[in-house]
Amino acid sequence: MAIEIVARKRETQGTGAARRLRRKGLVPGIVYGGDKGELTIELDHKALYLNLRNERFHASILTLEVAGAKEQVLLRAVNMHPYKPQVQHVDFQRVLKDKKLHMKVPLHFVNAEKSPGVKDQGGVASHGLNELDITCFPDDLPEFIEVDLANLAVGNSIHARDLALPKGVELALKKDENPVVATVVVPTLVTEEEEAAAAAAAVAPSEIPAIEQVAEPKEGEAGAEGAAKPGDKAAAKAGAEKPADKADKKDKK
Fold first, then answer.
1. For 112, which of 65, 119, 149, 188 could close a Cys bridge (C-beta 3.0–4.6 Å)?
2. CATH 2.40.240.10 placement within the chain
C-alpha cells in the first residue's frame, strides 16, 4: 500500500519565510523532476517526522497530494537541525513510469542464527553494507532486498553480485565493483582482553624497584643509624677514663 502525504503550495520564499514556517510547526519543501517545473510546498512537521521513522518512507514510491492533485514522488533529501529533532527542509522527485530510477534500497538480513558459522563455529554475522544501489523502473522498485545467511560459514562472505535480486532490479555498480555484503567472523574481543591483562601482569625484572630491607633492632639496641660497630666497644673502653681522671689519681698518691 502506497504511503500518502498531504502538502500545501508555499507562497512565500526565502530564509526568513522558511524560519517563520518552522515556528508554526511546518516544514518547507520542494518537488522537482518529471515533465513539470519545480513546486515549493509546506508540510506538517509532526506527520512528516513520524513518516521519516518508517523505513518504507525512504525507499518507496509515495503519493503526494497538493491542492487536490496527486502525483507519484520519491523522497530524495532531508535536512535535519544540527541537534534538535526538527526537519529543516525536504526534497521530493517526481516519478515517471517509463524512466528507470536509481535508488538506495535497505538490506534485510535473515537466518543468521541458522548459519553454520554462527550455530556451530561460534562466529557472529558482520554486515558490510546496510543498503544497496540499484536501478529499476518504478513498478519494480522493492521496499528492501533480503540477504539469506543460512549457508554462511566462518571466513566466508556474501558479495553484492551473489544476491538474488527481484525481477527487473539491477545493481548500480561499476564493472569491477563487488562489495562484501556480509561475512561471519569469530569475535576476538575476549582474546585481546586476556592478552592485555597478561601483558600488564608480566613486568620485566629490571622494572621492579629494589627494596632495601633493614632488620629492626632488638630491644635495648640502637637503631640502624645508631648501632655500634665491633671496633666501637674497644674504643669506648679505652677512652672511658679521661686524661684528667689519670692526673687526679697521681695527686691522691
1. 149
2. 3-96
